[in-house]
Amino acid sequence: MANSKDPLIVTVDEDEAYLEHIEDNVHFAIISTADDRISIKDIDCVKQESKIINSNSDLILDYPVVYLHVWQDKEDHYRNRYKIYIGEAENAIRRQKEHYQAANNKASWQWEMLHAKTIDGKRSVPKLYIIGNKYFNKSTTLDIEHNLVTHCRAMKTAEVKTIATSPQRKYYGSEWTDELFGRVWKELRRINKDLFLPLSDIRKSAIYRASPNHVLTETQEKARDFILDRLDEATIHNKKEQLIMVEGEAGTGKSVLTNTAFYNILQKSEMQKEKTGTEIKAYMLINHNEQFDLCRNVIKTLGFDEELVQKPTPFLNKIDADNPVDIVFVDEAHLLWTQGRQAYTGKNQLFDIMKRAKITVVMYDEFQALKKPQYIEPAFIDQIRNISSKQGNHFVLADQMRMHCNSYTLDWIDDFSKNKKINKYQNSKDSSYEIRAFDNPKKLHDAILNKSKTSEGRQSRLIATYDWPYTAKNEFDKFGQYWGVYINYDKDKKWYLPWNRMKISKSLKEKLNINNRELKNYKDQAWHERDYTINEVGSTFTIQGFDLDYAGVILGPSIRYDKETDQIWFDKTQKFSRDQMSGLRTMADGTNKDVGDIFLRNELRVLMTRGTKGLYIYACDKNLREVLYRQIQ
What we know:
Layout (H helix, E strand, L loop, with lengths): L7 E6 L2 H5 L1 H8 L28 H4 L3 E7 L2 H6 L2 E8 L2 H10 L7 H6 L12 E6 L5 H16 L4 E3 L13 H18 L7 H6 L1 H4 L8 H20 L4 E6 L6 H23 L5 E4 L3 H13 L7 E2 L1 H7 L6 E6 L18 H6 L2 E8 L13 H13 L3 E3 L10 H11 L16 E5 L2 H12 L8 E4 L19 E6 L3 E6 L7 H7 L3 H8 L13 E2 L1 H4 L4 E8 L3 E4 L4 E4 L7 H4 L2 E3 L5 E3 L1 H13 L2 E9 L2 H10 L2
Parallel strand pairs: 3-5, 6-10, 6-11, 7-8, 7-9, 9-10, 12-22, 13-16, 13-17, 17-22
Antiparallel strand pairs: 1-4, 2-3, 2-4, 14-15, 18-19, 20-21
Helix pairs in contact: 7-8, 11-12
């Protein structure tokens, strides 16, 4: 090959002749390559008259390979979706024979593939892709397989039948694996663009970012292994009310750690059930609506019951403290209620959860609580830290993994969102991140809109402080428009965009002129992934826990700047949700405390740490707008 890192991909129609003469037909499918590129074409194995074996055939016949079985049934044709099995083998032909021997089991994917029908009732002919390369060794093929599984699971065009894969650690040639995978994906996409979507689109999706199949950092891996060891220990010795506390600010990888450990335990439970008939009782608890829906979607794509993901209150009502489950993960534990609310009649959800689990794993960030029922007194935070520390179960994640910026930018955002100070910022000091200030909201929206049209900024959106009204009782406000953000600027100019709560419903279907399948696709996406939301505004309650490329942050009238003190201050009277985000909160000792500034600081922190590549800001307060414009260069 001219470029030895290019893959050789053999495409074979798995028709009746293939089933009868698998070895001959794989040989038939070995095709020659031109000097400057890979030559790939579909082979009609029945009509092929001669075997074309050249110097590259050993890449398929003698080297380790990665392979994909791809097929569609009647429903897939309607939904424009494919089913995929992805594997790796040291002997491609022998492995395919083993697959077809397993097709006698009606519960197997092999049986399903061989009995799939087209829309007109004929047999649906699968395709087999065999991928070879002279750089492939066992570890490389395992990593290519793993990357294919991870990316395909994040595509709405695919239903992956492969059960489980794991990323490899460092090995000889690991530095080439990412490049090799990119070349493999490029060729697969050239063969079938309907199935294999652009890598840049997949990697921006919330379901890909939430995948439990990413390579963990050394600190995350240590914490994951520790959780698994503690689970074994609690099972053997019947230990109860163990608390593992993992602390870390936004973007430090708490959710990835949680999802990976949870997934590993579900895999372990399946293997244990096959061997002993017993299973590990494990649950994931999430109190954030968007994150809850995403996690259920991820678990479902991995082949597990989505009911294993619960909200805290239904879990507490379902599980008896006298019969605790083995392990519970609580992502975004700062969102747990610390007083009675709605259907929850207890006093503290964390303690109630701990009574119902042998091990409770909590991910906690003190800067993320946004409502009074979530407020945790410093004494209580110290209490749960002490519980986990005395048990040897306390971890801290410190590395920032979301924002692609240096310490200069992180320090500036920290001073702004934590210390209420606006320092001078020079974009020239951080080439990987961009901060801009705007003097009117239309310019901000235009800038975010333009970024969303580029490949590196497709998931750029507007988000704002919750300073404008919304009610679920009526879709439209007094102006006859959907509840949204209204801003008067430049004397008589007005700007408006609706809040993100535009319902995915029949009215939206008619508004966007889309069909039922497209509407279903929207329902499976997070808010910031839906293309139409570029003309909406999200709040903290929408975007918390998610990433944007460029975050267009609207600081409403509740965020102000005092020239005399040279500091930001919070005007709680301007909050729409001031009953939940401001006012007095009754403490454990019976005293009342005004906690509004804490929630407004946290809201500001959430909004300003969403952008992975950039932060664009418009402030409604004139003084704040002017100082931002002056300080950001």
